[in-house]
Each structure stands twice: as C-alpha cells, then as structure tokens.
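Slide 14.
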Amino acid sequence: MSKAPEFIPLSDIAVRAVGGAAGRHAALIEDAFDVFIETPGGGVSINGDSKGRATAKRVVEQLAERADQGLEITEADVRVAIGQVRVGRGSAPGSLPSGRRGQVAPKTPGQARYLQALAACELVFGLGPAGTGKTFLAVAHGAGMLLRGEVERLIVSRPAVEAGERLGFLPGDLSEKVDPYMAPVWEALTDILGADQFKRRREKGEIEVAPIAFLRGRTLSHAFIIVDEAQNTSRLQMKMVLTRLGEGSRMAVTGDPSQIDLVNASDSGLAHAVGLLEGVKGVGVNRFTVEDVVRHPMVERIVRAYDADAAKRGRSI
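Slide 15: predicted structure.
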C-alpha cells in the first residue's frame, strides 16, 4: 500500500452514496481494485498503489456525479461503474457488465466465439445443450447494451408451449401470466443488474417481457431482443419474430434442438431458420458442445449419455 492516500472532495450526499449502507459500496470498490477507502469527512480517501487508486477514483467520481444529480446509487450501479472502468469507456461497446459473482466473462472457447458473434452480428443463433450459458450470456450482452445506452429496451420472448400460447385462462396481468416461463431469464437479469435496478428498469418499460404470440404486428426498434427456448417455436412463429427487427435493433435466438416440446417436432422453427439463414450477411450461428457445459459436472455427463444414446439409435440431436 502507498503511504500517500489520495483525497477526493465530495458532497455529503456523494460520500454516503460511495460508502453505501454499512460501507457495502466502498467494500465492492476496495475488493475490485485492492485499495482501502476511508471517509474522514468532506470526501473520501483512497489508499493503495497508483494504478489501484487511479481506477478506484474514476469509479468514485462516476458514482458521486450520479448521486449529486439526485439519482439513487445501488450495488448494481457500483458493479456497473467498476465494470466500465475495468474495460475502459472507449472500449465499452461489446463489453459485459459485472454480476453478483463479479465480471461476466466467457469460460470456454465456445462461449468466447458466441460473445464475438453477438458483438459483430445483428442476428445470432446460439444452439446447444443445457448449461452452456447461451441464455445467460445473451442476457448479459443485452444488459450491457442497455446500461451503455446502445439500445433503449431489452425485450425477452419465450414460447409458452405448455399453455399453447393461449395465456388468457391464466390469472393475473400479462407479466404474471408469463413470469413462470421466464424464470431463467429473470434470474439471469437479477444476477447481473441486481434486484433493485432490474425492478426499476422493468417498471420503466426498459425491460419488457413479451410472449411470442404478442410480438405479432410490432416493429421492435432500438432494442436488444432475446428469443429463448426457440426450439419450441413453430416455423411460422420463427419467421414472424425474426421479421420484427426494427431500426437499431439486434436479436439473439437461443435454443436446444434436442429439447423440442412441440407435438410435431418437425415443425420446430429453430433448425429450419438456421438452415435458411446461416451464411446470410449479418447472421451469426454459434453451436455449443458438451465441452461448453459450465453447470454442475453431472450435467456434462448427462448430456454425453444422451448424445451417445442418440448416436446408437442412428439419429442426430
């Protein structure tokens, strides 16, 4: 640690925001940059090596600026500021935010290729077995675009196969009807944004849930759209949702072709769309394999067993 801490004068409101309840915000900054933060009065003092002090100072200044504007500062805001400083504001496009477990980053070569495709292509198909991160990484990428202001909305759509897309008989409003089908996506967004920021952005309409059937007739502009569990869309539904792309929008379509729940599996729109669009300008296709499974090791063994059984029966998944 350096013997010359840097003192940053701040308003009382900014000091409280940087410190956070029980010093939680300051602790996050300390852990991120290996520094020590104190609040002696009239500002904050940062002690550490020169690089750590410089990066921590940038985070403190970002948070202080927001606090002085009257904006509430949450743990999610602190993590986002830390992530932005780490990657550098100039290289922010395509970067991923920090989640509750730290900076979101690819864990396998397949995931790295997927993120490269999401950054480079307007439409990306992520295909592969459970546990490969195809939905979580798409959510993280879309959340990053939303936080950086590159899109105005994050729209998530998923077929409700069990309800036949006829959700009217379920109790509650639209969100309450669809939420059970969206649980994996909501968990990912809560992990990345934090519960408070996720709730605020959803209430403001920046994060929207829309069953596939409800996208018909809409043009989705300046949005990042995620179509999850796409193997359970019909060919007509897939064509309809792909043609919703509007100005300034991007889309990620994720699914596992081996987990089709449709009555007529041959009507699945995912494989059909990939066959038609792979190679088209602006379209990326990333195929995950069992080596990309990052859940419990048992998941990888289960996928391998099912793949072996499919191969034995002479059919591909």
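Speaker note: The chain has a mean pLDDT of 82.
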